[in-house]
Design brief:
Elements: E1 6-17, E2 20-31, E3 35-39, H1 46-53, E4 61-66, E5 69-70, H2 76-81, E6 86-89, H3 101-105, H4 107-111, H5 117-130, H6 147-159, E7 165-169, H7 177-194, E8 197-202, H8 205-211, E9 214-219, E10 222-228, H9 238-245
Parallel strand pairs: 3-8, 3-9, 6-7, 7-8
Antiparallel strand pairs: 1-2, 1-4, 4-5, 9-10
């Protein structure tokens, strides 16, 4: 059986900052409907890889392909439309302090898609239902919510427009273990429900195992191992074993 075609692919991607290489030659892909988790230590280029994939940063060399098409070679109009195909759950949820919960969730609908506020609010309330937040919090502000609740609101916003590809940046950072497990389960459920492609970056190994179908270790600007989530603890690769054990 031939492998599923890649929804997203980094091909030979390199990036330097002040002459220092962060990504050397990143070769990585994720199939449509798949959930890939990129793990690795701080400063290994995980966030840079995501920023390049979403177009927030340009690579020094290499290609990013979506559905087999080189993003850099797309017509300008298609490039401008790319953000509409993505969803993003930021590390700190990144909610707007001055907007209510429902306005945060509906931000894209109102400000990018031109959906009337009344209709946008109804859709936001439905999104809050999906992440198991009571509608009574819709009129509250982010400062009135716990960290776990803020993550749920961020997830509702990321899923709002049924993205083709969704990115999760350290989804459980700052959460207690119980809340972290709940967020992991919710992410897994929502991604499978939408049928979208998911890419997660994290250093939380429990989160990686619970969210990902596959896990890849990024170190020294390249992928040193990739495999099924269940194989992480018996990869047979010294660098992976060292990372899993937390050895210096």
């Amino acid at each position: 059986m031939s492998p599923a075609p890649a929804k997203l692919e980094w091909r030979g991607v390199a990036k330097r900052f002040d002459g220092a290489p962060v990504l050397r030659s990143l070769d990585l892909s994720v199939a449509a409907g798949g959930s890939l988790v990129i793990i690795g230590g701080s400063g290994q280029g995980k966030s840079v890889a995501i920023k390049i994939a979403t177009g927030l940063m340009k690579p020094d060399s290499g290609q990013v392909l979506i559905d087999g098409m080189d993003v850099a070679a797309m017509p300008a109009r298609e490039q401008r439309q790319l953000p509409r195909r993505f969803g993003m759950l930021f590390q700190g949820a990144a909610l707007f302090d001055s907007l209510s919960v429902w306005e945060n969730v509906a931000f894209r609908l109102i400000n990018a898609d031109g959906v009337p506020r009344r209709q946008a609010k109804l859709r936001a309330l439905e999104a809050l239902d999906r992440v198991r937040i009571g509608r009574e919090v819709a009129g509250l502000y982010p400062s009135e919510l716990s960290g776990g609740m803020q993550k749920r609101v961020g997830l509702a916003r990321a899923m709002m427009a049924d993205p083709e590809i969704i990115f999760f940046d350290e989804p459980t950072t700052g959460l207690d273990p119980v809340t972290g497990r709940a967020i992991n389960a919710l992410i897994r459920e929502q991604v499978k429900g939408l049928g979208c492609t998911a890419v997660t970056i994290t250093h939380d190994l429990e989160s990686a195992r619970r969210i990902g179908d596959e896990i890849a270790l990024l170190s020294g600007g390249v992928i040193v191992w990739r495999g099924a989530a269940g194989d992480l603890h018996h990869s047979g690769v010294d660098e992976v074993d060292q990372f899993v054990r937390g050895d210096p």
